[in-house]
Amino acid sequence: MRRRVHLVLSSLLFCILLTSCSLVDELKGSSNVNGASVEEEHAAAKYSAYINLNNIMTGGMFDRAIESYTDEFGMGEEIYIGEDFDSFTSVPGLDGLVRTVNTAVDRAAGEPSYGAADEALIQLGPAMLDLLDTMEEISDYYSAQTFKEDQFHRGKELHSQFIAQYNTYEPLADQFYNDFDEIAAQQKLKDLETLKEQDFLIRYYALSVVMRAQDIEKAFYEAEIYDENILDYNVEEYRGLFDRLVDDSKQFMKYAKEDKRRKQESWTTLPELDAALQEVIGTATDILTILETRDTSINRDNMIMSSYFSQVSLLIDAYNYNIRVDKVK
């Protein structure tokens, strides 16, 4: 299975400014106590649902469930069974993934319209649900160790079913990514503009630093730079991206230390966000060292690029969780 890198950031501006995004369907009047209209609440809920779907597909639990299975049994039409195979444990929480898919699909027909992205999601949803059904059956099959009784007969059938469903899913997923990218990019810029206008500079730089980390990811992806050809990337171009990441990180940390501003913005930097940010900067620094010295020995396992991609994904997850926290310690 090819490495998929996707660059949609889960920036939920309405959830930054409002306190009841999750209660949108219970609203009765034309606006909530924070002054946001029902239309704005529904817009936030739809964007959130799409972002949550995107996240489980790009480094999240859905993606990990697929990777876990294919790492064990392969992506060929015929199942691969290792000589020392004795068990397989699937990623937990498949029921939660089903809810995430259904929530996004339910929002697809609602306002605001995302045009082609809505149509792509309507096609994608059933394909994801089919895969999740098969994953659940696979999980049950191996948990019960039925493969020992039937000599992998059903396991082989499930593998063929999984591969066929994945081959249906993948182009639909790519279409959704492509169509939703533009929507997400526009939303990120709106989020930044609004945060700066309202003098929410902790939140402004928190979002900006994640976008800077993604700029590096995107630059490598578009240049088709991976561990094996990392030295092909222009060091000066990378240094510019790196400096912007570090500069925004320093601004974020500076503002996040101000008690008055934390209270104003209802912000607490959670340990998960701080740790994820430090990991990203640390790996980004190592990449700069490799490009400047042209010494790849620091990349001991030849996985520094894939490590950076994974760390950016974790940073996004941590950021998304942090922006929902409105209690200052």
Overview of the structural elements:
By secondary structure, the chain is mostly helical. α11 runs antiparallel to α12. The longest helix is centred in the middle third of the chain and has 45 residues. It starts with 12 loop residues before the first helix and ends in a 7-residue tail after the last helix. The N terminus is likely disordered.
Q: What characterizes the major β-sheet? A: none
Q: Helix/strand/pairing class, anyone?
A: mainly alpha
Q: What would you call the quaternary organization?
A: single chain
Rg over CA atoms, rounded to whole Å, is: 22 Å
| Number of distinct beta strands | 0
Q: What is the N-to-C succession of helices and strands?
A: HHHHHHHHHHHH
Task: Briefly characterize the structure.
The protein is mostly helical and 329 residues long. The protein is built from twelve helices and no strands.
Lay out the secondary structure.
Elements: H1 13-17, H2 38-57, H3 61-73, H4 94-107, H5 116-143, H6 147-150, H7 153-197, H8 201-222, H9 235-256, H10 259-265, H11 271-293, H12 304-322
Helix pairs in contact: 2-4, 2-7, 4-5, 5-7, 7-8, 8-9, 8-12, 9-11, 11-12
